[in-house]
Amino acid sequence: MSLPNMLSSRSRSLKTVLSAATSVAATALLIRTISNDFIPDEIRDYFSSRLRSLSNHFSSQLTIVVEEFDGLTLNQLFEATDTYLGTKITPSTRRIKVTKPEKEKQLLVTMDRDEVIVDFFQDVQFKWVLVSTKIEPPASRNHRDFNSILRSEIRSFELSFHYKHKDMALDSYLPYILQKSEAIKEERKAVKLHTIDYCKTDYWGSIKLDHPATFETLAMESELKNMVMDDLERFVKRKEFYRRVGKAWKRGYLLYGPPGTGKSSLIAAMANYLNFDIYDLDLTEVHRNSDLKGLLIGIANRSILVIEDIDCTIELQDRSSEVKPRASSENKVTLSGLLNFIDGLWSSCGDERIIIFTTNNKERLDPALLRPGRMDMHIHMSYCTPCGFKLLASNYLGISDHGLFGEIDRLIEEAEVTAAEVAGELMKSDKPEIALQGLIKFLQNKKIEAEESKACKEERITDGGERHNGKETAQDGQKRDEQDGEGQQGHENEKVSEEQETKE
């Protein structure tokens, strides 16, 4: 056969192969499209799982299934795997999921369902597949009942490898993924603020906490500030200590003092200092004690649980009181349920957690809430001090000294003024002289108001005492008049009797 004929024959054969391959690809694409559009997800998932089971039966591959949830709790290994595999996306990956949380600059990339990612660890190949099975949601949802809120899909990772590497996978590879994912999350992490959201899988919704408060900007006494920072540092380093003594790895703080003294700013500063998320628990949104357990399960490790204005959110009856609390159908969270929540068996379902209560009136709280082990450190947030003022002046006006500082220090010690009030006055002008003069007038007015209020109070007390004493004097005079009347009447009766005897 001549060379032109041979080239022509090979060209026709190549065209035939390409045509057949194109037809097969088009047919496969058509079948996939029809399958996605017309075959229900349940049927498609069923056949996919059966095919995988059949292939695994005749294979030397071992498969490990990592499900998203372990009962009620989120599977830490699933979350770690999702984070880790997001860094292993290759050009051969055909489908990925990309999300951008609000107020965050970085995009989060994860693998999509049915995608395959191949990873190598110590020269051993490990193949990952994300499997997702949709389930029918219930006809109706009761957002107050955790058990009625079911997931719309069941997700799991399937890890396949040669069965002879099972020990390596369990003892080295999976622990490596857990460790690596923690480093990735810590590098990416932005502090978040979580609030109750019954529509979420873990009952918490979140946004990025963009609060600028730090310990450097807090208007607190330096000694108290350093004491809090040292306590936080000691807490996060004592994992083995808590395990050795048999206590849950948690710490409680009670912040108490007048409104506007910086309790919320201190909480934000603690979160930024430790890089811990904040879970803001509004007890008025919780309808029964059992709901507290579900919320506790949804709280991540390395986090701060905050219950603000604990004395005002719900009625917490003092258990030592003889007055029994009235039954209420609207709010069934009890003091006993709250105590179990923060210090019972369920409180050990997590590590490295901080619990913070805030109140304006510490004396109203039940002593059971305040004992060590529940509220380990009580921090009094007092009125602004000269030290706090100087820090505020540095933050707001950019000055560390001024001729008016002496007079302001004297007025601050004489008048009860909060850091929020001082900051509000300093924000009224960018010029230090004008701002400080305005603050002096404000402090002088506060001092006059305090003196007038004190004088009125003393006057009311004095007037009340005089009225009380006057009432007693009138009563005593009335008694004396009655006694004198009785004595005079008796004397007259005796005189009449004597006259009658004389006549006789």
From TrEMBL:
<dbReference type="InterPro" id="IPR050747">
    <property type="entry name" value="Mitochondrial_chaperone_BCS1"/>
</dbReference>
<dbReference type="InterPro" id="IPR027417">
    <property type="entry name" value="P-loop_NTPase"/>
</dbReference>
<dbReference type="GO" id="GO:0016887">
    <property type="term" value="F:ATP hydrolysis activity"/>
</dbReference>
<dbReference type="InterPro" id="IPR058017">
    <property type="entry name" value="At3g28540-like_C"/>
</dbReference>
<keyword id="KW-0547">Nucleotide-binding</keyword>
<comment type="similarity">
    <text>Belongs to the AAA ATPase family. BCS1 subfamily.</text>
</comment>
<protein>
    <recommendedName>
        <fullName>AAA+ ATPase domain-containing protein</fullName>
    </recommendedName>
</protein>
<dbReference type="Pfam" id="PF00004">
    <property type="entry name" value="AAA"/>
</dbReference>
<feature type="compositionally biased region" description="Basic and acidic residues">
    <location>
        <begin position="489"/>
        <end position="504"/>
    </location>
</feature>
<dbReference type="InterPro" id="IPR003593">
    <property type="entry name" value="AAA+_ATPase"/>
</dbReference>
<dbReference type="InterPro" id="IPR003959">
    <property type="entry name" value="ATPase_AAA_core"/>
</dbReference>
<feature type="compositionally biased region" description="Basic and acidic residues">
    <location>
        <begin position="453"/>
        <end position="482"/>
    </location>
</feature>
<feature type="domain" description="AAA+ ATPase">
    <location>
        <begin position="249"/>
        <end position="385"/>
    </location>
</feature>
<dbReference type="GO" id="GO:0005524">
    <property type="term" value="F:ATP binding"/>
</dbReference>
<dbReference type="Pfam" id="PF25568">
    <property type="entry name" value="AAA_lid_At3g28540"/>
</dbReference>
<dbReference type="Pfam" id="PF14363">
    <property type="entry name" value="AAA_assoc"/>
</dbReference>
<dbReference type="GO" id="GO:0006950">
    <property type="term" value="P:response to stress"/>
</dbReference>
<keyword id="KW-0067">ATP-binding</keyword>
<keyword id="KW-0460">Magnesium</keyword>
<feature type="region of interest" description="Disordered">
    <location>
        <begin position="453"/>
        <end position="504"/>
    </location>
</feature>
<dbReference type="InterPro" id="IPR003960">
    <property type="entry name" value="ATPase_AAA_CS"/>
</dbReference>
<dbReference type="InterPro" id="IPR025753">
    <property type="entry name" value="AAA_N_dom"/>
</dbReference>
